[in-house]
TrEMBL record:
Record's signal peptide: none
Superkingdom of the source species: Bacteria
Domain Tetrapyrrole methylase: 2-209
Gene Ontology biological-process entries: cobalamin biosynthetic process; methylation
Class of the enzyme per the UniProt entry, highest EC level: transferase
EC code: 2.1.1.131
Protein name: Precorrin-3B C(17)-methyltransferase
The entry's keywords: Cobalamin biosynthesis, Methyltransferase, S-adenosyl-L-methionine, Transferase
Lineage: Bacteria, Bacillati, Bacillota, Clostridia, Eubacteriales
A Pfam family that the UniProt record links to this protein: TP_methylase
CDD domains named among the record's database cross-references: Precorrin_3B_C17_MT (cd11646)
Record flagged with keyword S-adenosyl-L-methionine: yes
Sample GO molecular function, one term: precorrin-3B C17-methyltransferase activity
Pathway: Cofactor biosynthesis; adenosylcobalamin biosynthesis
Amino acid sequence: MKVTVVGLGPGAGRDLTGRAREALEQADLIIGYTAYIALIREAFPEKEMRSTGMRREVDRCREAVEAAVSGKDVAMVCSGDSGIYGMAGLVYEVAQEYPPIDIEVVPGITAACGGAAVLGAPLTHDFAVVSLSDLLTPWDLIEKRLRCAAEGDFVLCLYNPASHSRPDHLKRACAILLDAGKAPETVCGYVRNIGREGEASVLTTLEKLGEEPVDMFTTVFVGSSRTKVLSGKMVTPRGYLQREG
Ligand code: SAH
C-alpha cells in the first residue's frame, strides 16, 4: 500500500528521530542496504527485514515498490537523510512503472549536520554540499561545482570523499579548490563514523587535507575564508559579533 523512505541519521541509534522510529514500528517489512539493516535489527527484532548489497539500489527500490503494490506497508531505510544522496528520489522514479502507491519521505539527520556538530560549528553560514563520487556524475561537473563553490566562498561539505576504486578524489578536489583561489591555510576538518562506534575527527588545513586518510565512511568540511579554530573546534562565524564591532 505504501513505501515510507526513512532516514536513520548517521548512527541510526541515538540519532533516529521519533518520526523515523514510528515509521519503522508501523512497517510490515523493512528493506535496506545490508549495513543499515544491521544497525537497526537489534532494536526491531520482530520485524521482517530484507537486506540487499551495495550498488543494488534499483533492485532494492523495485522490491519495495512491488511489496507495497502487493499490499504491504514497507519502510525503505537509508543512512542519514532519506533524500540527500538517498533513495527517496529513486523510489518516486521506480514507482512510475507500477500502479499508484502512497510514498512518504521521512527525513533524518544528514552526515553534514552530524559531522558539523562533532567538529564544532562549521556550517553556521552559507554552505554547499558536493559528492566526490563520479559513479553517477561526470568528474567534469564535480570539478565545475567545486570551482563555483570556491568562487562563492561557501563552506564546503564533501560526501563520498574516497573509495577503494577512487582513492585520490579528495586530493584532486583539494588541488582544484587551491587552483580556484582558496587559501592553503583554509581551516578544514573531517569526521569518520559519525554517531557510530569509532567516531573520530581531525582538524587540518586545505594544504594538508589532500594527504589525509579518508574513506567512504568519512565526511569532509572545507571552511570559507572566515572559518577559524576556536577552543579547538572548527567555527564559521555568522557575523553577529563582527556586526557589533
Ligand atoms: N543519505 C546519507 C548520505 C549517503 S552518501 C546522509 O544523508 O548522510 C554516503 C556518504 O555520506 C559517505 O561517503 C560519507 O561521506 C557520508 N556519511 C554517511 N554516513 C556517515 C557517517 N556515519 N559518518 C561519516 N560520514 C558519513
